[in-house]
Amino acid sequence: MIPAGDTQDLPPTPEPMEFEMTKIAIVLGSTRTGRAGAGVAQWVLHQARARGDAEYTLIDLVDVDLPQIDEPVPPAAGRYAHPYTRQWAQTIAGHDGYVIVTPEYNRSFPGVLKNALDRVYAEWNNKAAGIVSYGVDGGVRAAEALRPVLGALQLADVSHEVTLDLRTDFREFGATFTPAEHQTASLATMLDQLVSWSTALATVRHGPVHAPGGVTVQR
Fold first, then answer.
1. Which pLDDT belongs to residue 195?
2. Which has the closest alpha carbon to 95: 67, 138, 66, 58?
3. What pLDDT was estimated at residue 215?
4. Domain annotation covers residue 46
5. Which helix (H) or strand (E) holds 64?
6. pLDDT recorded at residue 212
7. Is 17 contained in some domain?
8. What residues contact residue 162 under an 8 Å CB cut-off, 6+ apart?
């Protein structure tokens, strides 16, 4: 017991920690004219913003308009030569997690999405990602092709995914997006996982890293 008035050996009271709201980007991975994904991405954005648990923004790759990879140095080096790459890196760095909205093209995902993922590296690291896929059979093969790519970028992909079938979640085979009732609950489950992981991984990126040999590195 500490005697009354004897506080000289007490540690200082820590300052209260301030937490910013988790930032999640919804990345629309199709740029095709007449794409079904525009309606899907807007649905995800609307449902997500109604939750109030994170700050959600939409990144449309049509607006980003990245050329094919033309950087002279591999992205893992972090030395980006072109201004559009540096701008893309800044955009990705400003978020804690991502919802990837992707169609299925020939049992995989679009090249424009692969180009956007591959162009930068460290900005993706130690963050979380969820997948919303669409296509025949719900675009599941695109989602499965995407997962190892996310892993290579050190993105933790949550297990639950939203799969939207062109035959049951759209009218006229993709012309109008009309998601089945159960898809709202499915999206909520995926976002629950995504926000949880995105928030947790922020401590990995911003907290101290204990390297081998007892050296502590502050990120």
1. 98
2. 58
3. 38
4. yes
5. helix 61-64
6. 41
7. no
8. 130, 131, 132, 133, 183, 186, 187, 190
Predicted model pTM: 0.86
Q: Is 14 inside any structural domain?
A: no
Predicted pLDDT at 3: 55
For residues 134 and 105, the answer to whether their CB atoms sit within 8 Å is no
What is residue 210's predicted lDDT score, i.e. its pLDDT? 44
- Phi, psi of 3, deg, nearest 5: -60, 150
Number of domains within the chain: 1
Give the residue from 215, 193, 218, 214 showing the smallest Cα distance to 205. Answer: 218
Give the angle subtended at the CA of 97 by the CAs of 119 and 152, to the nearest 5°.
45
Domain containing 99 — which CATH number? Answer: 3.40.50.360
Q: Which residue has the tokens 């997962």?
A: 147
Q: Which residue is listed with tokens 């009309």?
A: 178
- Give the residues of the chain that fall short of pLDDT 50: 17, 208-219
On whether residue 131 sits in a domain, the answer given is yes
Question: Cβ distance 41 to 60 under 8 Å?
Answer: yes
The beta strand positions in 62-173, using DSSP E, are: 97-103, 127-135, 155-157, 162-165, 170-171
Domain hosting 174: range is: 23-218
The two structure tokens encoding residue 80: 């980006």
pLDDT of residue 173: 85
The number of residues in the chain equals 219
